[in-house]
Amino acid sequence: xxxxxxxxxxxxxxxxxxxxxxxxxxxxxxxxxxxxxxxxxxxxxxxxxxxxxxxxxxxxxxxxxxxxxxxxxxxxxxxxxxxxxxxxxxxxxxxxxxxxxxxxxxxxxxxxxxxxxxxxxxxxxxxxxxxxxxxxxxxxxxxxxxxxxxxxxxxxxxxxxxxxxxxxxxxxxxxxxxxxxxxxxxxxxxxxxxxxxxxxxxxxxxxxxxxxxxxxxxxxxxxxxxxxxxxxxxxxxxxxxxxxxxxxxxxxxxxxxxxxxxxxxxxxxxxxxxxxxxxxxxxxxxxxxxxxxxxxxxxxxxxxxxxxxxxxxxxxxxxxxxxxxxxxxxxxxxxxxxxxxxxxxxxxxxxxxxxxxxxxxxxxxxxxxxxxxxxxxxxxxxxxxxxxxxxxxxxxxxxxxxxxxxxxxxxxxxxxxxxxxxxxxxxxxxxxxxxxxxxxxxxxxxxxxxxxxxxxxxxxxxxxxxxxxxxxxxxxxxxxxxxxxxxxxxxxxxxxxxxxxxxxxxxxxxxxxxxxxxxxxxxxxxxxxxxxxxxxxxxxxxxxxxxxxxxxxxxxxxxxxxxxxxxxxxxxxxxxxxxxxxxxxxxxxxxxxxxxxxxxxxxxxxxxxxxxxxxxxxxxxxxxxxxxxxxxxxxxxxxxxxxxxxxxxxxxxxxxxxxxxxxxxxxxxxxxxxxxxxxxxxxxxxxxxxxxxxxxxxxxxxxxxxxxxxxxxxxxxxxxxxxxxxxxxxxxxxx
Length: 735
Known about the structure:
Helix 8 (about 205-215) crosses helix 9, helix 9 (about 220-250) packs across helix 27 and helix 11 runs parallel beside helix 12. The relative contact order is 0.10. The protein has a seven-stranded parallel β-sheet, with helices on both faces. A six-stranded parallel β-sheet has the order 16-21-20-17-19-18, with helices on both faces. A five-stranded mixed β-barrel has the order 2-3-4-6-5. The protein is globular and about 105 Å long. The protein contains 28 helices and 21 strands. It is of the alpha/beta class and about 725 residues long. Strand 3 and strand 4 form a beta hairpin.
């Protein structure tokens, strides 16, 4: 977020072309401002001065000592086969003991000239052991001249910034570059309005930048962080507040359901009453649809809370009012599933223009990328003529060829799988901006909702429909207790014998080759587990059919099957012909088979918390209780087991989403949700900084209400321009 033209100086002019190239390619830093906002990840302390006689192993220490001897050795190695390898060994002493320092390769030249016998210096590094002797390898050092005791204290007590770095550019080289650009911090324009800054007792921005990069104390770091977090929270909330303000100015067609129309006919044939939550959320949506500005609403609902019913009633209201409604699903399986269940729920009301269709009926059309030419042509025709009041599809709906007669409402299912551009491309198909309802079954902590979906009003469905059954969840430690896994398969068989069905979920299909690139960058825990590849659908299905589940009707479902084959498998499972479905996460959302009561998730540690919660929501959808077994080989003390324990211990999706966010890098969460551009948050932690985000949102709303164009706040406008790169600007400005 480079704040002023003075900070827009390209880095290659300041730090040199080679360093600037690495910074641009690997760290996405291009200007002086970018580098000033590349904050230290943490701070190392050189540690208390330690006597050589008391050195602790494996800790970072700082010692003051005199060089006793220095010897340069040459040796042959694979990198230097002709005996040109160099190793410098320096012995230092402080009177209490001796310590060896070693430097290798090109790193020997400077210490070889600096560290002559008799030289006094401070040395900082990590104590290790080699050949039964303690040593420091490649320590940092500072020569002491004139025996200045203050220099010793200030150097040893300094907080050393450790920057997010890369293999091509170490943290200390970044620190040197920051040193070069730090004077420019004085020219940083302050985006916070003065009244806000003074009211919140925040330090000025130039001072915050100096303190974050060169703190004299931990208090400096704390005050700098407070200030910089406010910048990020406030500028982002102003961007979102301006978008909400702009949206509120847009025209839209008010869509009010008519008495005795399609919605009334649908409600009259419902075999159950809506929950209080569904009635409350429906009222919020109908109130929004009745205004002449486009609705922008996020509908969060626990797995199985009846979001689809709420969305369908909103779509029927729009059809009643003469418009069309489109529902966008992330996968073909889900689009087909939605189409099938909506047609079933509507019955003869979905047979518009057909023999036997009800008088108020409309047509419900499916449009996906893999449809045959004739079916696709007919679907496109239904849309452009207005014959189809409701269309359900995948991103095929966004293509240029797709035209609507009068698009009044867009429902996006599972928002986290759609970029904002896709959402907006569909909204662009209305003559005027259509109303927008975004649904997610992944509960989103309040702060993430304010940060990522801050342009949307939020409704929450948190009660399950009557008759829904509880789901019991258990961790099955297959490695430690193999008999638990055997019992799991017995439980599946018992459920099937009661007339129910089961899912078995695996992380992999089984016909793909391992990508060597993916093997890099894994934690030690993951690497240890991956001595064997993740369990695969095709292998597990075969083993189960031959072994513990022999005699049961077992089928497979995965994303690389032909769409017609996938649909046929789902139909057989929904009809109860298939007893056990072995699948990948294609069943994660929207699949609704009330007779399925058991789910076994293999290698459960390889799935995210939210994903496990979503998967688990596929069982217990009928009157019989659900069972979810999380199978893992991870040892008891591992973080992965703790994560699975958390999932097993609660059905509260909001609690699990907090755990999920705390365990993942929130940049992943935000970067993905913010239209694929990298997260602008470098200092703000979405879960921890809830109070700052909430306060920043209030301040932003006040500022934008008074001055929507920010005419009186040029510094804030500049900061906003920097936050909204071209791509993000497009996304935030679309109506």
